[in-house]
Amino acid sequence: MKKLINLFSLTVVLLSFAACGEQTDAVESGVYEGTVDKVEPAKTEIYVKTVDDKTLELYFTEATKLTRNGEVVPFDALEAGQTVKVEIEKIGKRLDPISVEILEQ
Amino acid sequence: MPEIPEFWRTEVWHPLSVHLPIGILLAAVLFKFMQRIQPKSMWNLGGSILLYLGTTAAWISIYTGNLADGIVSRHLCDPTILKDHENMAYLTAWLFTAAAALDLLQFLGSRILKMQVLSWMVVVLMLVATGFLTYAGHLGASLVYQQAAGVHIPSEDCAEFE
Lengths: 105, 162
Hints:
The complex is a heterodimer.
Chain A: H1 2-19, E1 30-40, E2 45-50, E3 55-59, E4 65-68, E5 71-72, E6 83-91, E7 94-104
Parallel strand pairs in A: 4-7
Antiparallel strand pairs in A: 1-2, 1-6, 2-3, 4-5, 6-7
Chain B: H1 13-37, H2 41-72, H3 79-108, H4 115-147
């Protein structure tokens, strides 16, 4: 019985950690390079993991310019794992992507 | 001239659907807790029905919250609060789901655990989930009342209401 109760407690703790989800960071305006961690096409949103291990949550605006090899490409050109260079404007704690350049797969 | 936006906007479905599970789940906790103090089948069965209904409604409100997320995030000054709200909501829903699954074992006849132990586990899980539910609700309120998430702000001269 004691083992089962311990198992129950462990499950609650693990469930809590598992459901905590991803944390995002606010950074200053500027240009950052990183890897696309996740793409949410329905929300035109991407998560970018920077080299200093920060996670940027970027919602594309109408003004966001997405390019590859200097050419403008549609949002569906983005995939998880790609290396990107993003120019960000910080408004409050919101990060508006001004431009996103796909560097490589 | 500014216009009053349509009421049935995508982002409005979340506040419309989120308050029902909050009420139902809090009532479920109360019923299950009362059952521990004053064992009566009414408290247990009532609490179980409320728990299943509330958990289902909680997942529906998470779905509507995801729909609202894509719209309101672009206008918030601090979207990290929205992310915390989302994480807390998922945690709450999973904990109530776990409580509902354990609670179902009572009716299916658990051979692994004694009924008393199972019943206490359900209550403890629900109490922990209630703590997270309260915090998720607080964050949701802060998004609305401090950052006007999903809220139409009328023009200064209220011309659209004339």
